[in-house]
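Chapter summary example.
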Amino acid sequence: MIKKYFSLFGLVLIFVLSVKAQDSSSVLLRIGDENIGAEEFWAIYQKNSRINQQSEKTSINEYLDLYINFKLKVKEAKDAKMDTAAAFIKELEGYRKQLVKPYLVIEEVNEKMLRDVYKRMQTNVRASHILLRLSKTPTPADTLAVFQKAVEIREAILNGEYSFADAAVRFSEDPSAKDMDFGNGRPPRKGNKGDLGFFSVFDMVYPFEEAAFNLNVGEISKPVRTRFGYHLILLTDRIPAIGQAKAAHIFVRNSKPAAIDSAKVRIDELYDEIQKGKKFEDIVLKSDDKGTREKGGELPWFAANRMVPEFIAALSKMNVGDISEPIKTNYGWHIIKFLDQKPIQDFDKVKKDIKDKLKRDIRSHKGEQAKIAQIKIEENFKEFPDNLQEAIAAIDTNFYTDDFDIEKLSGLTKPIFSLRDTLFSQYGFLNYIFQRKGSKMPDGFDILIAKMYKEYVDKQCLSFEERHLEEKYFDFRLIMNEYREGILLFDLMDKKIWSKASADTLGLERFFANNQNKYKWKKRAQLSVFHLNDKSYSDSVQDLLFLGETDEAIIQEVSSDSLNPVRLEKITVEKGDKAKYDALKWKKGAFYPLLDETGKIESIVVFRDILKPQLKKLSETRGLVIADYQNYLEKEWISELKKRYEVKVDKKVLRTIKERNK
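The structure predicted for these 662 residues follows.
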């Protein structure tokens, strides 16, 4: 619908985010008691010129006339208080919520983030970790204790007291690191000793991913905090991204522990058969993988994070079509055939997918956080720590009870921070906490309050910026004004012109009667067109036309059983409507064959009657008459508005605009 608003006077919205506030003090025109700045007119004229650059450029004078007519209509809508209607306010606010989004992030940061993610997608890394867990709301003492333990474990590994794998089994609180006994005679699941296999961007929580990708192979990270706790990360491999891979395998299950590894002996025998010339597809029938051996050992497509790491490491050194030597995994022995690969696509093809994933990832806030930092600098952000501590001290166990009245704290009005000359009070922050509180004072209260304070500051910074967008950004003020006036004009035009023209039957009939000479038929012909589904019937149709047979008699004569070799179409055409009929001699009773592109007759046209030019009836041209009636009503309305509102154009300012347009 919004497109309709701006097509009313040829304006289409373009987002231009780089334009800062400009000087709009020079007034180009005055309509009634309202001033319209030169910069506003110039910006809209330039915008319209860019959009319509394929067509002839509208002159400044011509466009100014259109612009004055538009502003006259908007003026009436405002005077009628249409901009105070609840429906209008709600609709405009809905559009504003969408329009503000690009102004509340730094787009350059987001674009760089997209590029960084794509760059990271080109690599798969393999890492092991040791996890020391933390609760969701740990106390500072708990956090420090876990951090110190992680540091001690790292130092012990670096000093050679443990291998990383041994330390993972001994200390990690990730249960997958250790062997797991299922009981009931079931074989135990072998632990991974901290090995997480290969992964890429978005496969791990962001802090973990960020740390892993910034390590060198063989390097152990310092403690890395995620929502799960603290991690020590060892990077064990880095390979070019495998993308999506298709492979087949011959599998020999692990044998029971013995002096001789019978599984290894068997896989070597199978590999030897392939080396001697037997086909992989024949040997795969001996595989222990019942689910794939009847399908040539073929596995579903997989990414690096969906397959055991030994598989991925082997494939990274192979080309499509290669067959690997036997490789060992926790499950047994494998011989792999690399069948196909889908590499990472070009940036433009995956950009939308990256954007969608970023929306669910914490790194998506980088652009927003950069904007908040910018707002703090621009708006002279200042904190009052003592007042903040006084507010926090007012929170006790009673605060978390169901019957606590937050109004008891309304007297705490000292500022905890400020933006420009706006102060944000203690009570405002306490009320923010109150609206989000649980049923009891949480563990790790200090950490939670610090987190909520940051959230509160961030929200208030963005809210402050949003409230001042029109003041700070000329282009945003312009675009919001276009939406505001476009919606107003649409509603008013519907009431004054569009609906009225359709519903005012007497007025429409009177207009038609006064302008009937505009609505005339040109010379017309009533045609019978015989379309030849079977071209062999051409002579038969023409012979029957020579005999003067009627259309119905001809169709009856040439039709047989359920076959329809000829289709009849009766139409009335106006001179100048269709070139293929205009080229024929218009004579009653005449008929002509029309040829297709191969030179064969595809249809036969019969001129059954010739109609002289005549006036149209209203029913025959109602749509066109309504459109003309709408134009008439609009012109009358504009004439009335020009009498009601005085229009003054500053010729001197207009000349300066014309100079800019040269």
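To summarize the output: The two ends are 35 Å apart (CA to CA).
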